[in-house]
Amino acid sequence: MKKIGTIFAALAAALMLMGGTAEAAKKKAKVVVTPAAPWAYWWTGPWQVRDPRLATSNLVVGGAATGAYFAIKDSSRSFGSVGNSGFAYGASAIGCAAVSPIVGTIVLNRPLTQREVFVSTANCALPIIGGLAMNYWFDYYGWDRPKGKKKKG
């Protein structure tokens, strides 16, 4: 057992030493999101994202997650009880939440805003309702608004 612990500690130390410094604060990119045309609301409305390309990527990733759900759920006939519906939902939702921001970043060729990441991730857990809830929370609590500077005095 000590050997396994030593191996995991060595791997953790190696991974910590391999990582570089983050440069997100050094390169501040200005994000300009163009709102969708009014006629395109039927396409972007349910996902509540402002860029139609991001709505399309969310739709594709969500469709792939739905296909993965049915594939995992139906595999229970061949592989035993691993493929029950609860496990299938959890695995496909976690996979979708991990892949959705990555695909969105690649499609848009820019860093996603915090709102876009949260909406895309929430849509993986609860399609349509999750994105609406995250948009409501962003609007209500102002998570993505700049904070005012405190006055000293």
Please give the share of residues in helix. Answer: 55-70%
- The H-and-E topology, N to C, reads as HHHHHHH
Shape: extended
Low-confidence stretches: none
Structural class: mainly alpha
Number of helices: 7
Instruction: State the distance separating the first and last CA atoms.
Output: 59 Å
Radius of gyration: 20 Å
User: Which percent band covers the strand fraction?
Assistant: under 5%
According to DSSP, the number of beta strands is 0
The biggest sheet amounts to: none
Average pLDDT taken over every residue: 76
How would you summarize what this structure contains?
With 153 residues, the chain is mainly α. The protein has helices at residues 2-18, 41-44, 52-74, 76-79, 85-108, 114-125, 129-141.
Write a structural description.
- 63% of the residues lie in helices and 0% in strands.
- The protein has 153 residues and is mostly helical.
- It has a domain at 62-144.
- The longest helix has 24 residues, at 85-108.
- The radius of gyration is 20 Å and the shape is extended.
- The protein starts with a helix and ends in a 12-residue tail after the last helix.
Which structural traits does this protein have?
extended, 7 helices, 153 residues, single chain, mainly alpha
Task: Tell me the layout of helices and strands.
Blueprint: H1 2-18, H2 41-44, H3 52-74, H4 76-79, H5 85-108, H6 114-125, H7 129-141
Helix pairs in contact: 3-5, 3-6, 5-6, 6-7
